[in-house]
Design brief:
With 248 residues, this protein is an alpha/beta fold. The protein has three domains: 41 residues, no CATH class; 125 residues, Rossmann fold; 65 residues, Putative phosphatase, domain 2 (DNA polymerase, domain 1), CATH 1.10.150.240. 52% of the residues lie in helices and 12% in strands. The protein has 13 helices and seven strands. The longest helix is centred in the N-terminal third of the chain and has 19 residues. The N terminus is likely disordered.
């Protein structure tokens, strides 16, 4: 319902590309304030895609640096450079290196050779549940809504969170589209297309929420209705505006 206003404003400003993110954020704020859907009339989504990190579960990369540093006898800053600043973690999450290759590269970069299992545990034990979202997920699933996971993650992280320590939370999501398995990562457009194919839905039939603005914008660019995750209450209101009902 606001698309024509957005286009006119951008044309008048003469800076359509640079203003796009600002205008989108402004329209989202207005729609949130007045409890309306920015896209106007649209069928309720058939598939609800959720991000994992900082949506379903909180995580802390700095905690990983501290724990891996303790195992390897290093400073956390050294681990940060070897794992995150170097691009090693990104390559791991994209499935470009295996867990063993990640370990070997870590050893080479740091000049250490810590216990393999202890290092993996230090890298993975960085999650804690978002207690507020569990009831919403349970009620959505009970109401028959299809839920799917779309996450940038790696093998040790997924094995850590998927072993049942968070109860049945992740069991509600199918398919589970994980970057290291599909060899793609958000915000690459191809991972959204892969997720749609695996879920068996078209872009116009999907909804997505993520805590990172660039991932939300990338989803919108391929036609998925996406919102930035800022909290459970705001997410519930966004779903209700789209006709997604549950006993929450």
């Amino acid at each position: 319902m606001y698309a024509w206003r957005k286009q006119v404003c951008l044309q008048r400003s003469g800076c359509q590309g640079s203003a796009n993110g600002t205008i989108t954020a402004l329209l989202d704020h207005v729609c949130e304030r007045f409890d309306v859907h920015r896209e106007g009339v649209r069928a309720s989504p058939r598939m609800l895609f959720f991000d994992l990190g900082n949506v379903l579960l909180y995580f802390d990369h700095e905690q990983a640096c501290r724990q891996m540093a303790e195992v390897a006898g290093l400073e956390p800053s050294t681990v940060r450079r070897a794992v995150f600043d170097s691009g090693l973690q990104h390559a791991y999450e994209c499935g470009q290196v295996s867990t063993r290759q990640f370990y070997e590269e870590f050893c080479r970069a740091t000049g250490t050779r810590p216990d393999f299992s202890a290092l993996c545990e230090g890298a993975a034990a960085i999650f804690r549940p978002n207690a507020g979202i569990r009831p919403l997920v349970a009620h959505l699933a009970a109401a028959g809504h299809r839920l799917a996971l779309l996450s940038n993650t790696c093998e040790v992280h997924w094995e850590y969170v998927a072993n049942g320590r968070y109860g049945s939370l992740l069991e509600a999501f199918s398919p589970q589209v994980l970057s290291y398995r599909v060899g793609l990562a958000k915000p690459q457009p191809e991972i959204y297309l892969a997720a749609l194919e695996l879920a068996g839905v078209h872009a116009a039939e999907a909804f997505f929420t993520d805590d990172r603005p660039e991932n939300v914008e990338a989803a919108r660019a391929v036609g998925i209705d996406a919102v930035l995750f800022t909290g459970v209450a705001a997410l519930y209101r966004a779903l209700r505006r789209r006709g997604v009902e549950c006993n929450y």
